[in-house]
Specification:
Layout (H helix, E strand, L loop, with lengths): L2 H14 L1 H5 L10 E8 L3 H13 L5 E4 L4 H5 L1 H9 L3 E4 L27 H19 L6 E2 L6 E2 L2 E2 L11 E2 L19 E2 L5 H14 L2 E6 L1 E2 L6 E2 L1 H13 L4 E3 L2 H12 L7
Parallel strand pairs: 1-2, 1-9, 1-12, 2-3, 4-7, 8-9, 10-11
Antiparallel strand pairs: 5-6
The structure holds zinc ion.
Length: 271
């Protein structure tokens, strides 16, 4: 344990007793766990429903944007203002290519079939999307989310060439992980479609008990996508997070992943 945080924790121990001492983790900003709210695909409801709900609770999330989305083009100043208020504009590729050779991928068009891409084309398009996002928000550090969770082209992990372009990448596998368990090139998340508010809050309580990272993956919020969470369930989650902000570290993926990266390197990067 680093001695600065040791002093802080010692003070917390004296004030709150052994239970509180045991239940905080320095990588989670001296709170019990971390929660990251992510929203995929650059859709209207991000700007119409999700961001207003987050802003009114003074919470920040990560929005994984597709560079070719018409909603990005049409509402660019709104995305810029969202970034200025602290939301992360994450990279969800320029064209959202998914592997059309996998079962259940009838929705993949020939133009956007990752199995027909070369690795260098995937890498180049994702870098071009970073350039676009930097032009919008002025930032150079951000995270990536694999479209459809697909990580490989012909058996090659294309993100291996992008590790220096991103702080981390989010996958689609469900799971809660401690900071040492997190794979920064494939961070777990819970993909939400139709679950109620109690389910969402119960996941947060599990993360609090296990001192882990919990990442939510939303698409539609109150409609706008075939994968959806109701406004009521989303509101119930935000209300719980806000009420327990002292115990739960809630931040965009780029900030949480950077803390994990430093912790996994044994704190060597912290000066
Ligand atoms: Zn997507």
């Amino acid at each position: 344990m680093r001695f600065l945080s040791h002093l802080t924790l010692a003070a917390a121990f004296l004030l709150a007793g052994p239970a509180a001492f045991a239940q905080t983790t320095s990588v989670w900003n001296n709170k019990q766990c971390a929660v990251v709210l992510t929203y995929d695909d650059a859709i209207d409801v991000d700007l119409d429903n999700a961001i207003p709900a987050l802003d009114s609770a003074k919470l920040r999330g990560t929005f994984y944007l597709i560079g070719s989305s018409p909603v990005l083009a049409k509402r660019l100043p709104e995305w810029r203002r969202a970034a200025q208020r602290g939301h992360e504009l994450g990279n969800h590729a320029l064209m959202h290519p998914c592997d059309g050779s996998l079962p259940g991928r009838g929705f993949v068009t020939p133009d956007n079939d990752l199995s027909k891409y070369t690795v260098s084309r995937a890498v180049t398009e994702i870098r071009a999307n970073n350039t676009l996002l930097t032009a919008i928000d002025g930032k150079t550090a951000r995270t990536f989310a694999y479209p459809c969770g697909d990580r490989q082209i012909g058996g090659v992990n294309f993100y291996d060439q992008l590790k220096n372009d991103f702080v981390a990448a989010r996958g689609v596998t469900g799971g809660l992980q401690t900071a040492s368990q997190v794979k920064l090139d494939d961070i777990d998340c819970y993909s939400i479609n139709g679950q109620d508010g109690k389910y969402l809050v119960d996941l947060v309580k599990q993360a609090q008990q296990s001192h882990t990272l919990l990442v939510f993956l939303f698409h539609g919020v109150g409609g706008g996508h075939s994968l959806n969470v109701s406004l009521a369930a989303h509101r119930q989650l935000l209300r719980y997070l806000k009420a327990h902000e002292k115990d739960i570290y809630i931040a965009p993926m780029v900030e949480v992943a950077e803390r994990i990266r430093v912790a996994q390197q044994g704190g060597a990067a912290r000066k």
